[in-house]
Amino acid sequence: MNRTLTLSALCIASTFLCSCRDLLEEDIAGFGVVLQTPPDGSSTSANVVQFRWEAVPGAVAYRIQIVAPDFANPALFLHDSLVTANSFSVPLTPGAYRWRVRGENPNSRTDYYERGILITAATTLDGLTPLLVSPATGAYTAADPLVFTWNILTGADDYRFELRSGGQSGSLVNAQIIAGTTVQLNDMVEGIYAWGVQGQNSTSTSTFSYRDITVDRTAPGAPVLLLPANAATLPNALFTFQWQSGTNSGIGGADSLFVLNSEQQTVRLLATTVTSVEDSLGLGTYTWYVRTTDAAGNGTASISRAFTVE
After folding, report:
1. Within this chain, do residues 151 and 112 fall inside the same structural domain, yes or no?
2. Are 247 and 300 contained in the same domain?
3. Is residue 20 part of a domain?
4. Separation of alpha carbons 92 and 47, rounded Å
């Protein structure tokens, strides 16, 4: 009887919690989305447009869609993106577009609210923004050489490339005038940098476009294996792999557990952020090791240990 009462209580509690969860998610179906910029029917020669709207109370995300020329007969469906911020920036080529936004949460959504915008061909570089390709914003990299690339900016005769130490306002490390859209740098010292590109011609210049990156070539220390002990004999049942991660002076350390059979074939390969894993493998002799890798891809492996399951 006590068991039955306990199960009933659990069911009631579970139903109550689900109902509470539903109530916590506000019904936003009746709300409107106030679009801010760009104004409806506006035109611009900027190659990157920021769409902005007011936050909707109770919305946890917003779906923005952009088409050309309109939603009734779209020739191009450029974006259908779910974002958590109340703004969205995107490069657009000359043409007529419609854009719309709705608020969403797990239980409800608003209607779409829509506007149009016209992108015209630029006659000057003023107000244009170079579109950087790689490395990505916030990238951690150990690459050498490091290659910087960006898209062609229509109207630019060449580009000014800058590399600054520490950030956009940091000291200038490298500056070049480049006819193409690629720069390769060798033997970069470890550290935080901002790299930027500005298009230019004989009469105008674009804005600078910057990205931050971190160069990290220092590998983590070697992980230390704890269990099973070397040459251990284990029963054919669940057992535990346990280790200490390698020390990491960089960012984003993660471990990979490797287990090989007697023929040196990999039977387990597990990427993990924990340092203890339960497993069972069946009868046989195995070796195992762990590799710690940082966000830049630098990695160091532990020594290998052998054990037998019988």
Report:
1. no
2. yes
3. no
4. 6
Whether 198 contacts 273, CB under 8 Å? no
The arithmetic mean of pLDDT across residues 86-95, rounded, is 95
Task: Kindly report, residue by residue over 250-275, the tens digit of the pLDDT.
Answer: 777 799 999 999 999 999 999 999 99
HSE, side-chain direction, 13 A CA sphere, residue 306: 8
Domain co-membership, 100 together with 146? no
**Which CATH number is 179's domain given?**
2.60.40.10
Select from 200, 208, 241 the least CA-distant residue to 224: 241
Of 133, 149, 126, whose CA–CA distance to 199 is shortest? 126
Q: What is the CATH number of the domain that holds 243?
A: 2.60.40.1220
Which of 39, 117, 126, 122 shows the shortest CA–CA distance to 78? 117
User: Quick one: pLDDT at residue 25?
Assistant: 67
CB 174 within 8 A of CB 154: no
Tell me the CA distances in angstroms from 1 to 4, 12, 187, 198, 250, one per residue in order. 5, 16, 74, 77, 57
Domain residues for 68? 35-119
